[in-house]
Write a structure and sequence with these properties.
The chain is of the alpha/beta class and about 750 residues long. The chain is built from 30 helices and 15 strands. The strands form four sheets. Strands 6-5-4-7-8 form a five-stranded mixed β-sheet, with helices on both faces. A five-stranded mixed beta barrel has the order 11-12-13-15-14. A hairpin with a 6-residue loop joins strand 12 and strand 13. Helix 2 crosses helix 5. It is globular and about 105 Å long.
């Protein structure tokens, strides 16, 4: 644990040094982020998961920086080039770019113009010019004219010297840093169409002649242009419009006189910039802009994923789930309150009166036979027709009919996880089961799917995949542990996200449960193969055992604090069962009596909160949602309609809303609120229920424009602007939408419609 790192992180993140040090120590000991945030508040000063994650990431970044620093030192030392000055410079470098700048002059190089000039013996001339900038250099250059060395005349000698100086300029750490900073401040990001690709690359036409300040360009436009470039339709540049500023920086560093030699240095400086530094600085900008775009896109993805995972659960109910279809029929499954498959069948309500009557009898029979308490219908093809059919059956009002977002159900049904769960059933049955289970508990079901396949982000295949995976894994882990997991019913996939557990220990828990029956207490977990004391410490507080030997096992109170609760009960002459049930008894507990050197008020307050609501679920209470009746397809829409909808995805340019017509509509960021907003997340979240106004319907292109303003006014747009909207064109005064659409193969509905079917995430 590097104390200098701790001090720097504390300063950079504005967090007390003691808190950063405590987090660093706990992480080093193998503690997880959820565990530290929940059960080590006294040590960290009650830092939350966000702060702890930032500390973890900074520790890893600084460690990687140290590794590179050590590698450079070793390389220099092995070649007898390491000096005290270099050691000091490397030790003071705070970024990877600075370390690379320092190392640049010593990197093995291919044969360059400068090395060729050195081979001709011109290095002393270059040194003379640099050191005597107020004097003439032509006479000195004449001394280096040598036909055998291919130095034909004075100008040839000076040209070779300039090549050497130009490379020295390009290798200078200060020069590289200065030009890089200038690029970061002044660069424009621009794109042009590749010659001859105008028609083939028409989907990127809004970027055929586009320019924007690189520092201001939003994530979705950066990624769109990069994709257009990678597909061979666009040429992208990120350079300052005015190069004189960068050259001025270099001249200030290297031009130190007014003589002929100074003019040679100035010429070398300009050559160094044009031939060497401009390209390396542009490469740096491309990487930095991409990194920023990736970070923004990953943040959007993670925020959306959190909202989806934390969607309200229906809870344990007997569920009839339907995966709708026209030609192939609707797959129907019946699940018990534990999500076990009891029965499956196929109905054909859209294939004539006879089939519809048969389907009616089956659904009514299943509801009676399996005591169905809710019906889940996937929101894919034929969903509204199937919903209308089910609602026409006259089912009791106590059985809600709920449209369920089936995002990723097809991915799950074909996965190894699904084959392991249901080896004797085909993918259609598995998909229907997934729809029913995600109504009961979205979190427990969605963890079985790779988060990147859920489809609630933008450009997820274009961003840094390591960064994306890390962020999404952190999000899933945070959600799972904030809710808690019932150890006796959870799948091994869900268990694997519990603090301290992994795929192996989760699998071992399920095997032990299958062999020995339900766990009676948390301490029985120590009997599981591979689950030792440290793993138990990290996991136990997040695992629930309802109806077990100890009522505290159903709560988030950690077993290490059971003795404190027992003392509380004893001190007021009561028992644990009573203080869990009776608020008036709990009110007698004086928390100050239990504060000691290790246990403080933050944890004691958490304990009291848990005693009041053991194992409380932080997710909102489930509410039944229904789309507007009679609006089942895009042809049913009319401009001016106000409709209920569910937000399916939030992006940098707005939000997509499912209004029940098999085609998500777009609420552009400018239409999300009556007041100006910079971030769509300020107003909406995935799964949020909203009311929208239909502004425009383009049936041919399957596009629906919506508004959430209280008094929206339809804007009169030019044909050009209309084409731009929803395609990433930079409109003045507004952040434009993404020029791509979401894949219609169901990660999250057919956003933007068939007009953009060639553009997939």
């Amino acid at each position: 644990m590097n104390q200098d790192h701790i001090i720097k992180i504390a300063s950079d993140l504005n967090i007390p040094v003691m808190g950063v040090g405590a987090v660093a120590k706990l992480l080093e000991e193998g503690a997880t982020v959820p565990f530290i945030a929940r059960y080590r508040k006294e040590a960290t000063g009650s830092l939350d998961e966000v702060a702890i994650t930032k500390i973890r990431d900074e520790i890893e970044r600084l460690s990687a920086l140290d590794d590179r620093r050590a590698s450079v030192k070793k390389s220099l030392e092995e070649r007898k080039l390491l000096t005290p000055e270099l050691i000091q410079a490397l030790d003071s470098a705070e970024t990877l770019a600075r370390i690379e700048d320092i190392y640049q002059p010593f990197k093995p190089k291919r044969r360059t113009r400068a090395t060729i000039a050195k081979e001709k013996g011109l290095e002393p001339l270059a040194q003379f010019i640099l050191e005597n900038q107020d004097s003439s250099c032509s006479e000195k250059a004449s001394e280096f004219v040598d036909a055998e060395k291919e130095v034909a005349d004075v100008e040839s000698a000076l040209a070779g010297a300039r090549d050497i100086i130009a490379e020295q300029v390009a290798d200078s750490a200060d020069a590289r840093a200065g030009v890089r900073e200038y690029f970061e401040r002044e660069s424009n990001m621009s794109s042009k169409v590749m010659i001859g690709k105008e028609e083939e690359g028409a989907k990127y036409r809004d970027y055929f002649n586009w320019s924007e300040k690189a520092s201001d360009a939003p994530s979705h436009r950066i990624l769109a242009v990069r994709r257009g470039e990678s597909e061979g339709f666009l040429i992208m540049r990120i350079v300052p419009e005015d190069t004189s500023g960068a050259i001025a920086i270099l001249k200030k560093l290297f031009v130190k006189g007014n003589g002929e030699s100074a003019k040679q240095v100035a010429m070398a400086v300009e050559d160094s910039y044009n031939r060497l530094l401009s390209s390396t600085s542009e490469t740096h900008m491309r990487l930095e802009v991409k990194k920023r775009a990736d970070e923004d896109a990953v943040k959007i993805f993670a925020n959306n994923l959190r909202e989806l995972l934390m969607a309200s659960p229906l809870g344990r109910k007997n569920v009839l789930a339907i995966d709708p279809g026209f030609r192939t029929g609707c797959k129907v499954v019946c699940l018990n309150r534990q999500g076990d498959l009891l029965h499956n069948d196929v109905i054909y309500p859209e294939q004539g009166d006879f089939k519809a009557k048969e389907a009616s009898q089956k659904i009514l029979g299943f509801c009676a036979r399996f005591e169905i308490e809710a019906i889940a219908i996937g929101n894919g093809t034929a969903s509204r027709e199937t919903e209308a059919f089910v609602r026409s059956l006259g089912l009791p009002a106590t059985i809600p009919v709920v449209m369920v977002n089936e995002s990723g159900a097809s991915i799950y049904s074909a996965s190894e996880v699904a084959r392991e769960e249901f080896p004797n059933y085909d993918i259609t049955v598995r998909g229907a089961v997934s729809i029913g289970r995600r109504l009961m508990d979205p979190l427990a079901e969605l963890v079985k799917i790779d988060p990147q396949s859920i489809g609630v982000g933008q450009y997820q295949h274009d961003v840094n995949q390591t960064m994306l995976k890390r962020s999404l894994d952190d999000t899933v882990i945070s959600c799972v542990n904030s809710v808690g997991v019932e150890v006796n019913t959870a799948s091994k996939q869900l268990l694997s996200y519990v603090s301290g557990l992994n795929a192996t220990t989760a699998s071992n828990i399920v095997e032990y449960r299958n062999a020995n029956g339900p766990f009676k207490s948390r301490k029985d977990l120590l009997k599981v193969k591979g689950l030792g004391a440290k793993t138990f410490e990290q996991a136990a507080g997040f695992l629930r055992i309802r109806g077990g030997d100890n009522p505290l096992d159903a709560s988030a109170v950690h077993p290490e604090r059971y003795s404190v609760v027992e003392r509380m009960a004893s001190d007021i002459g009561s028992d644990i069962d009573t203080i869990l049930k009776d608020a008036s008894v709990r009110a007698k507990i004086d928390l100050n009596k239990y504060v000691d050197g290790e246990l403080g008020m933050p944890t004691l307050k958490d304990i009291m909160q848990e005693l009041g609501k053991p194992g409380r679920d932080p997710r909102e209470k489930f509410e039944v949602f229904a789309f507007a009746e009679g609006v089942n397809k895009i042809e049913d829409l009319q401009e001016g309609m106000r409709l209920p909808g569910i937000v399916t995805n939030v992006t940098a340019f707005g939000a997509f809303v499912d209004i029940g017509v098999h085609q998500d509509g777009l609420v552009h960021i400018s239409e999300l609120s009556d007041t100006f907003i910079k971030d769509a997340n300020e107003v909406v979240k995935p799964q949020q229920k909203v009311n929208v106004y239909v502004m425009e319907v383009d049936i041919a292109r399957r596009r629906i424009s919506l508004s959430m303003k209280s008094n929206p006014q339809k804007r009169v747009k030019s044909a050009g602007e209309s084409a731009m909207q929803g395609r990433g064109a930079p409109r003045r005064g507004a952040t434009p939408p993404n020029p791509t659409r979401y894949n219609s193969s169901k990660p999250f509905g057919n956003s933007f419609g068939d007009a953009f079917s060639n553009l997939k995430f």
